[in-house]
Amino acid sequence: MGKKIHKCGLYVRVSTEEQAQVEEGSIKNQLARLRRFMGHKSAEKDTFGQSEEWVNAREYVEEGRSAKDTNRPQYQEMVRDIEDGKVNTVLFTELSRISRSTKDFLEFGRFLQDREADFICLQHPELNTATAHGRILLTMLVAMMEFEREINVDRSRRSYQERAGRGLWTGSQLLGYDLIEDRKGHMKVNEADANIVRFIFRAYLKQQSIHKVAALCNQRGYKTKSYESRRGKKHSGTDFSYSSVKQILQQLAYVAQKEVNKQNKGRRDVPDGRDYRVVESDCWKPIIDVDVFNQVQEIIRKNARARGSEKTTQGDAYDFLLGDLLTCHHCGAVLTHGGTKRNGNIISHYIHRKKQRQSDCPLPPNLPARRLDEVIWGRLAQEANEQLDGKLMENLLTSQVTGTVPKNIEDLRSDMAETERAIQENQSEHDNIVKSLGQNGAQAGTRIVAFLKQLSGDIDSLNAQKAEQAKRLKAMEVGSSVDSQIRRILKDRQKSIAQLPPDKKVELAKVLLDGITLKADTIILDRRFRKPIVGTVNPRQGVRSSPWRFLDVEWLN
User: How does the average pLDDT of the chain come out, rounded?
Assistant: First the structure.
């Protein structure tokens, strides 16, 4: 009889990153138990005196991932290895390490059975997918685990709703406040952070643009909330983005109010007691005046209506980043924007215009806009940084920007002229005094010497003022010909280019590209100044759906 070879995949998991960082913690213990089990099995003999071969094919360590679903990198890697025959036996310490969902666990069991693979759980060795008795025990046990998890989730949700209804803070760290450790749900004002929040509201009332406010915050060196968690992990502040500024502008906590059941906002079909509402709170002091807050909300709504993108359900309107650059090679059609409604949310797509898609078109009817923008813009950012000459790019952008010289530039030029006249007058008076003294300068009185020193000091001060005015004027003149933010972005490399606001990304894409051609499994970026960039859309192994759904693109150049 041939010796059976168990190519083992050892799967271990912990739910939090803190658990993963413990040197002698759960991960190490799980691996030690599984390796010891393999050693014992290799030493066992069957009735014919033979031993099975147990090989440690691979260890899958899942750090900081819940088992509520199968969207886990190491789990998916293990599934692919089973598909490829690299693993035929899965070892784990407890059922909950693999899954807490009955449906997911049973599907995993059927998946192994179809591929003639096994699993072994050290906690319940009698459970397996080979016998009917094992399968029914497995179903009952996993169902109880899922029931326990749902009870815990429901208990936590009820506690959260009760605390929120009493006006207690139930969220995470919030810019402008610090949590009070010995009074859970209470916060105190952090004046340094609160000044940033006040600046954001003032700037938005003036600029009426979230993108501009984010840029102003970053120019001033402001950062988002920096704090240390209860477990001692430090979280550093980051640059402000569109979303972080918008969240601050719409945060009711800044007027000492608390949203309850926020996830149900705008929905009607909700259970009793789970409806959305706002409650007043005396657990922290307000930072923003209510009238100012209401003015900001009205401007946000007005801007949304002006864009034609205000939504009555959950989710933000999506800014398409590729304009009208996308063309279907098969149909010869330029793609446009579209979306489908799912569970009250709009899923954004690039689609063919009406009646332009041919029946045999290899592209799906709906291309995922967010993913396609992300993939192509990742390559465009590299292009803008590494390939395109910065000066040429600047000239192109300059040619696209139109507008008159701002009025404040003329005001500054007038100030500079006044400063120049004052310098000349002081210098002339100084020179005349010195000239009138002639050869008797050494005998000049102390009053005259003091007056000359004063004139010299005034001249130096005026020259410094003139230099500062000239610096400001140059900056204004640059800003009037080329958008100052893009000029800064061109110097800041890839990270800053990725942070361009959506409208600037659309402009930049049109500068870099003549168009984007989509073929059956290929994306071609038609560059203006160099040969095209070609990328292949790879199918996902073990998945039957269209590769355009996931857009795993390999750029060939």
Answer: 76
CA–CA gap between residue 84 and residue 542 (Å, rounded): 10
The answer to whether position 171 is within a domain reads no
- 24 with 140, same domain? yes
Please check whether residues 200 and 291 belong to one and the same domain. yes
pLDDT of residue 315: 39
Structure confidence at residue 356 (pLDDT)? 84
Q: What is the pLDDT of residue 488?
A: 47
Residue 49: is its pLDDT beyond 60? no
Domain count, the chain: 4
pLDDT at 330 over 60: yes
Give the number of residues written for the chain.
Answer: 557
Strands of 89-92's sheet in order across: 53-62, 5-13, 89-92, 118-121
Tell me whether residue 315 is in a domain: no
| pLDDT above 70 coverage of the chain, percent | 70
Range of the domain at 134: 5-151
- Helix and strand totals (H; E) in the chain: 17, 19
210-219 vs 242-249: helix crossing angle, rounded to 10: 110
Instruction: For residue 488, give the H/E element and its range.
Output: helix 484-491
41 and 190 share a domain?
Answer: no
Q: Which pTM was predicted?
A: 0.36
Angle between helices 102-114 and 132-165 (to 10 degrees): 150
Would residue 317 count as lying in a domain? no
One domain for residues 52 and 99: yes
The count of other CB atoms within 10 Å of the CB of residue 442 is 6
DSSP bridge partners of 341: 346
- Structure tokens belonging to residue 545: 């759906």
Domain-embedded: residue 162: no
pLDDT(83) > 70: yes
Q: From the CB of residue 478, how many other CB atoms can be counted at a distance below 10 Å?
A: 12
Q: Are residues 421 and 450 in the same domain?
A: yes
Q: Which two tokens stand for residue 102?
A: 């009955």
Residue of 283 and 274 predicted with greater confidence:
283
Q: Which DSSP helix (H) or strand (E) runs through 8?
A: strand 5-13
Per-residue model confidence (pLDDT) at position 233: 73
